[in-house]
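User: Can you fold this complex?
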Amino acid sequence: MDIVVTIILIGGLFFFAGGAIGIIRLPEFYCRLHAAGQLDTMGVLWTMAALALYVLDDFSLGAILTSLKIILIVFFLFITSPTATHAIVDAGVRAGLRPWRKRGAEE
Amino acid sequence: MKAFALIIVILCAGLLIYGTSDFPPWSDPESPASTHVSPYYIEHTIEDTSVPNIVTSVLADYRGFDTMFETIVIFTAGIACFFLLRVTKREDHESRLYHHLVTGVTLRIKEGGKLPDESEEFRRVDTEWVPYSLIIKITCRLIVPFIMLFALYVIAHGHHSPGGGFQGGVIIGAAMILFAISNDLRAAILRLSEKMATFFCSAGVFIYAGTGLLCLLLGLNFLDYGALAKILFTDPVTARSHGILAVEIGVGIAVMGVVVSIYYNLSSAGKHDEGL
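Assistant: Here's the predicted assembly.
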């Protein structure tokens, strides 16, 4: 069980690392938000799944309730995190920020 | 001048770092912080108040006066914001926009013009109106009830898990603010009016102080919840637990009212007319 949990945790950390690298390396606002929004949501899913499994070492009522709460966290994050990204992108569009283009590409 | 400032900073930092050498070692059982009252709290909380969460019992029972005046500080902050920002004089200098729903025409009614009533036909539109994204509106509508439910859980479950009145009140206030942001200020004021928010501010403090006064009337000290046993028909220890709950509810209501009323005043520059 511990091995499975570790593997899933490492998978989640992989996504988080990807998100962090994306925020630093990508050229501008929208691309960075893309990396941050998508990869963070996925990373949360994996790490939280690992935690839910880790808590569930015995199938007592308390353990099941705790892992249910963790799954609820994931559920709400899946609703709110993309919405937050959407709101920020919306604000960027309204403020008149143009998407990035490669230098030389036609407008 | 810059070098002089730097020297002062370095001297102060050196002094502070030198001061830390007099601190007791980390987690030293003989340190002053953990010799006088802390062991008493840790050992006697359950038998004194039957509250498993020591933090809550210290906050609301052993140091009830402190928390009461913290609540009053928050109340004062809300009232101060009200007095600083609220504009009572109506200034109808700006023109207003109305949307005629039947024809889809937006009307600008200038200063002094006759304003139509808010009805099925006319809907008021903010002057710097931005069409809110439907996604944000719907998601917030979906999320707000759950946030409020969680806040009630935080308030009611403060005895057993991390939580309490301050945190729960702030969460309810944040839910109201989220609603106000995702729709508009007028929609929020329609649901929780300014009067009601201000009423909640004082009602919370009143509940807290009233609980204390009730204990005084029942023959014990101010905020000595053991006295409530007479009207709750329980033993004094359980009555303390219930008294803490009553006080936490008061704190929650006060904090919620203050947070919401400060938001109303800040976001509309005191006009409560148009805003975020």
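The beta strands of chain B are 96-100, 105-109, 122-125. Residues 50 and 62 of chain B are 13 Å apart (CA to CA).
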